[in-house]
Write a structure and sequence with these properties.
Layout (H helix, E strand, L loop, with lengths): L2 H7 L2 H18 L3 H7 L4 H47 L5 E3 L2 E3 L4 H15 L3 H9 L3 H16 L3
Antiparallel strand pairs: 1-2
Length: 156
Amino acid sequence: MRTNEIIEIAPLYLRKKYSAIRSRVKQSLEPSEKIKKDLKHIKREILREKRSEIKSLMDEATLLLFIFEIYRFFMRGTEEAKDTVDTFRKLNIMGFSIGNQRFEDRNENVMRGEVLARNILSIIDKETEITIKKATYFHEILEPYKEKAQKIWRIN
């Protein structure tokens, strides 16, 4: 299944998140005004090749950043659940419930986000996993893609 097919069937929240990331990536990989002027003078087939390379780069960066954002979302959820359980324990309250879900100690409900985050990382290659785990901020992942885009847009 292709990425766009998966996004189309994803919940609205995730579709909006993906779309927002895609817009930000696209904006970041666009050529500068100076380069745009220079691009007007190159052959159409060369421009088409450059746009195709940029599209591939944009697809890759968008997917990587989407995984990064979901990974962080799940990990934050677990950290917040653990902090909440620990705070309640300090008040001699041994957990809490949301609906029929019980949160206490480090049970399955408390750790669910971390489990989901690990599952996401288990389906990607090791290099991508390292990139995601190492990064703290969105721009740390996006910056190498911006550099690659600048090289693609250059006119030799």
